[in-house]
Amino acid sequence: MRHWHHILRRWRVKLAHLVLLPEMNEEDGAAIRQQVEDDGRLTRGFALMCGIAAGIAMLGLLQSSTAVVIGAMLVSPLMGPIAALGFGFAALDGHRIRDAAKVVMVGAAIGIITGILITMASPIRNATPEIIARTQPTLLDLVVALLSGLAGGYATVMKKGGTAIGVSIATALMPPLTTVGYGLAVWQPAFALGALLLFLTNLSAIAFAFALVARLSGAALPEKQVDWSPRYVLAGLSAFAILAVPLGLTLSQVSREAGLRKTARAAIAEATDGANSRIAQLDVSWPLLGDPEVSALVVTSHYAGDAEQVLRKALAAAGAAKVTVKLQQVLAADLPAQTQAMVDAAMERTAAGIAADVPPFARIRAAIGLPTSALWVNRSERMVFAAPVAAPGWALADYRQIEEAATQAAQGWRVAIVPPAGAELTVALDGAKEDASAITPDLAIWAVQRWGLNRVIVVGREEEVSPLVQQLQQAGIAASVIPPDPQGKPQQAKLRLSAPPSAIAQPETVPGSARTNGA
User: Fold this and answer.
1) Residue 451: is its pLDDT beyond 60?
2) Mean pLDDT, rounded, of the chain
3) How confident is the model at residue 489 (pLDDT cuts 50, 70, 90)?
């Protein structure tokens, strides 16, 4: 037995030297273990700092402020008990694992309860991009947690306390906990479960990474000093299982998403003439408790009307039967134009903050209820512009009504319906409406704004149209008044557009937007 113990120790020392870890003597190892144990104790200060960090994190998430969220990461004291948990795992010391797990659970409970209370007290309860980004773990989150745990373990055994600040920022343990509280407060179980899985994934990856560094360096408690009482062994095994399960679930989810991404990339290339198309953005999500989603932006020289259907069939054949597909095609004729389109897409992705935050196009189309000749998006202002085809017998009021219905269905996005343009509008003044085609001033202003015009000509008696001109000017629309036809009806005005209808509301003229062709 001593022979094998000597061999294992020799290989451990070699591996530790290979990764630049020191070989701890008993005195140095005991000092480090004592420091880790002291940092991981449950104290009033620990509870207070957890509450403060959770409050800062929740406010930052509700404001979608990255800087505020980073501040919460710096304040959070959760790294202390997690390091103690890792050192306990390194020695299979159930006594220390149990004590550290208690402290972690208390800190987690404080974070969740604080998130619930602040969300319920706040008038802002929108699911911001910062919140959505923490509702499910990804491969990148897992890798970041592992590397951060290794860095934190290295900093601990090398006594480089400053590195712990960077580790705290990288792991972001408190924001997922407050997101759990947010999900419970607004009763979004999917948000709460996803954020909890992200926290447990980060927690397990960091703890296991700490355990690896502690064991390689010799800083972990020697096996001969471990209390092998049955209850402590059971506590250690239970904690290990609790952390291993979410880590396994995350790895399973990441594997599914990787396979779906590979299938989606090949199917998109086939559906959009891969030789003449480029995939500018591809986002794949397959939650454990939800259906998969594939969102892509393709730069292509020819529009493929059946691309979404082809992609959906290919993904269904790969096992994603209830997949949601969001495919945008940007037309570019040659290589320079394609390159510019991909650069624009990347810039828009940066400005938008999160590419997965795309409008629910299917719900918007269903709410509109008419075929659309074009859809385009201004992500920075969270606006979706839709140009439906002209419906027989429809008036401008009908188009504004479907705009309201589409906005309600757009899940946090605003929808702007661009109605078919005419050469002029008849506006009823002071409520008079002798002509059935006359519309109210506010409806006329809405139409002019949707057409993207900033100047109109008002035909009418100056004393009668003066209030209308003021309303136009308050809406940012310049108006020139010309006398009416002597036979014109009183209490009515004509709005003549200052641009031909063919030049109105073209998607290419909207700055910072991306266009989707087809219904």
Assistant:
1) yes
2) 75
3) low
Residues 6+ apart with CB under 8 A from 248: none
SS3 of residue 105 by DSSP: helix
Over residues 358-382, the pLDDT tens digits come to 678 888 888 888 888 777 777 667 7
How does DSSP classify residue 439? Answer: B
Strand, helix or coil for residue 437:
coil
Residues 33-55 have a mean pLDDT of 86
pLDDT digits (tens, 9 = 90+) for 241-295: 776 776 677 777 777 777 888 888 888 777 776 656 777 778 777 776 677 888 7
Q: Dmax of the chain from CA atoms?
A: 114
Is residue 452 classed as helix, strand or coil in its secondary structure? coil
Look up residue 457 and give its two tokens: 């000509």
Nearest to 315 by CA among 286, 352, 279: 286
Retrieve residue 42's tokens: 């449950």
DSSP string, 462-519: HHHHHHHHHHHHHTT-EEEEEPPPTTPPTTEEEEEESS-GGGSS-GGGSTT-EEEE--
Which residue, 106, 125, 141, is CA-closest to 64?
Answer: 125
Residue 109, pLDDT score:
93
Phi, psi of 165 (to 5 degrees): -65, -45
What is the crossing angle of helices 189-217 and 174-185, to 10°? 160
**In angstroms, rounded to a whole number, what is the distance separating the alpha carbons of residues 65 and 443?**
37
Q: Is beta strand 492-497 parallel, antiparallel or unpaired with respect to 424-428?
A: antiparallel
Mean pLDDT across 206-223 = 77
Residues 6+ away with beta carbon under 8 Å from 38: none
pLDDT value at 142 more than 70: yes
Q: What's phi and psi for 278, nearest 5 deg? A: -135, 135
Helix (H) or strand (E) holding 61: helix 44-63
Which residues are registered as beta bridge partners of 455? 478
Distance separating alpha carbons of residues 81 and 200, to the nearest angstrom = 14
Lowest mean per-residue pLDDT among 95-109, 127-141, 422-436: 422-436
Within 8 A by CB and 6+ apart from 278, the residues are: 298, 299, 300, 338, 342
User: Positive or negative CA dihedral for 80, 85, 86, 88?
Assistant: positive
Above 90 in pLDDT, residue 117?
Answer: yes
Report yes or no: 81 and 109 within 8 Å, Cβ to Cβ.
Answer: no
Nearest to 134 by CA among 80, 228, 202: 202
Query: Tokens at residue 405, please?
Result: 């219905």
Q: What strands, in cross-sheet order, belong to the sheet with 414-417?
A: 414-417, 383-388, 372-378, 514-517
Question: Is the pLDDT confidence value at 499 over 50?
Answer: no
Q: Are 374 and 507 in contact (CB under 8 A)?
A: yes
Are the C-beta atoms of residues 133 and 177 closer than 8 Å to each other? no
Helices and strands of the chain, counted as H and E runs: 18, 11
